[in-house]
Amino acid sequence: MTEARTQRELIEESLGFLFEAELLEEIIEVGKVKSLESDQILLDTGDDLLYIPFILDGAIKVSRDRDEEELLLYYIESGDTCAMTLQCTVRKSVSEIRATTIEPSRILMIPIMYMEKWMSNYSSWRRYILESYHSRMTELIETVDAIAFMRLDERLEKYLVDQAKLKGSLEIKHTHQQIAEDLHSSRVVISRLLKQLETKGRIQLYRNRIVLSSI
Amino acid sequence: MTEARTQRELIEESLGFLFEAELLEEIIEVGKVKSLESDQILLDTGDDLLYIPFILDGAIKVSRDRDEEELLLYYIESGDTCAMTLQCTVRKSVSEIRATTIEPSRILMIPIMYMEKWMSNYSSWRRYILESYHSRMTELIETVDAIAFMRLDERLEKYLVDQAKLKGSLEIKHTHQQIAEDLHSSRVVISRLLKQLETKGRIQLYRNRIVLSSI
DNA sequence: TCCTGAATGTGACTTTTGTCACTTTTCATT
DNA sequence: AATGAAAAGTGACAAAAGTCACATTCAGGA
């Protein structure tokens, strides 16, 4: 009972301001909360899409991978969903991306069958879905911008700033190897560029830890 | 009268199979057909989004541009719409992309005010909007893949093949300069790589014209 | 046919990024 | 405190892509 109450409160807190009361009740009724540690794969390339995941708390990174090579696409946070999964209502399909927790996270899983029903019944749902798609498109385009128009050192700095904003801290606890994977580069190159950023006074380097001078 | 009849037939032919009859009638009633020559800008970065454009015939390329630099994102064809414009119902916004005709095209312009109404009334409309968003997302991801994971010579070959498929012809009537812009590279580099492709027997080069050996 | 501007070709060079083969540092265990 | 594995640093080199300056070629109008 306590557990159920807590769950209701959690959902109300994260999603309450997004949906009308009636829909929220339905969501609470049919959704299952899943708790994940950091660095767990929530959804992998090729997985069947059976649920629409809503992030209640924590944070997720969405990345593309092609034969072992990876590239960070965007992050999703509390209140967001993964737009790539929304398609499943229309046509059964599999994931084209990988979603990984980057913090301990709680995720509300809604079976896809409710998607179509809610689309016709709730304007708040329609609004939410369209907003989600649009945000994700915009973020994807921002990613394209970065890869196409920026040099790696600029992308690296942007990456560090984005991370800091996301975590709300100037301290980034990543190894150079992890950063290299997110940016689809190599560890040696990232180490080199980080050293340059340190020389320029933008960051301080420690083992497993980078401290940004400012955002 | 003849003009109106032709217009109705055109819309029915391009969009008829997508929407239920009743919605199609509404579309025909409120939409305005716009005819554009090749290489006309339909929508530019920063433009207000007031209409949802449906491609009736012809073809459009959608590209991102940042201070004079350009990058091709994807193409849209008959029956498609530009997903980036769909957001406008929810929140007034401006375009983040540029849409340019690459063939003489006819486009049906629907005032955005109908979007929300149709979303609640027509399941075919909902399905169409979701499908559009998803297709565009998928294409954007494909573009990200290309930029992130492929070398320029591979991207160039993919570009030529895509063009050929789009136009339904092995002959591509572009200057090296135009290709360089779409791929966000420089003319000299593209000329060099095209020469390599010719040496490998993949293409034949002429002035203003490239002929693919096979798709 | 000749001329001209646009399109294409080319060599020499630079910058950016990636790769390889190591060494050194750091931190958490014994 | 010793040690061992992971993380980070480093020099030398290679590959990919971009830049510059100029030469050549072509297509279409005068």
Give a written overview of the molecule.
2 copies of one chain form a homodimer. Chain A has 215 residues and is an alpha+beta fold. Chain A has 2 domains: 2-148, Jelly Rolls (Sandwich); 151-212, Winged helix-like DNA-binding domain superfamily/Winged helix DNA-binding domain (Arc Repressor Mutant, subunit A), CATH 1.10.10.10. Chain A has 7 helices and 10 strands. Chain A has helices at residues 2-15, 21-30, 113-121, 123-149, 152-167, 176-182, 187-199, and strands spanning 32-36, 41-43, 51-57, 59-66, 69-77, 98-101, 105-111, 171-172, 203-206, 209-212. In chain A, the strands form 3 sheets. In chain A, strands 2-6-4-5 form a 4-stranded antiparallel beta sheet, covered by helices on one side. In chain A, strands 1-7-3 form a 3-stranded antiparallel beta sheet. The first copy, chain A, has a 3-stranded antiparallel beta sheet with strand order 8-10-9. The longest helix of chain A has 27 residues, at 123-149. The relative contact order of chain A is 0.13. The mean pLDDT of chain A is 91. The interface between A and B is large, with 37 and 37 residues. Chain B binds a DNA duplex (30 and 30 nucleotides) through residues 151-153, 175-177, 185-189, 191-195, 205-208.
